[in-house]
Specification:
There is one protein chain. The chain is an alpha+beta fold. The model has no long low-confidence stretch (mean pLDDT about 90). The chain has a two-stranded antiparallel sheet. It folds into two domains: about 45 residues, Ribbon (Pemi-like Protein 1, Chain: D), CATH 2.10.260; about 30 residues, no CATH class. It is built from four helices and two strands, in the order αββααα. A hairpin with a 2-residue loop joins strand 1 and strand 2.
């Protein structure tokens, strides 16, 4: 896919909508720029939602028990117990 974008007076560019849609780029995603010879390589680094990342690990577990255990440990640590 070939699309153009102009550089503004503040050296900013807009990612064209067709590319954003094709690559699934969302607000908050990080874009990495690499200079190579006479070109710029732009890569998308998706942010990983930590909750979704461990969803599979916790499948079938009692989430209320996990919350209670975690809260108890944090409280004990803060109280120095």
């Amino acid at each position: 896919m070939y699309v153009k974008s102009k550089v503004t007076s503040k050296y900013q560019i807009t990612l064209p909508k067709p590319l954003r849609k094709k690559l699934g780029i969302s607000k908050g995603d990080e874009i990495v720029f690499e200079g190579e010879d006479d070109r710029i390589i732009i890569r998308v680094e998706k942010r990983v939602d930590p909750v979704k990342a461990i969803e599979g690990i916790l499948e079938g577990e009692d989430l209320e028990e996990i919350k209670h255990t975690a809260a108890s440990r944090i409280l004990k640590r803060k109280l120095g117990l």
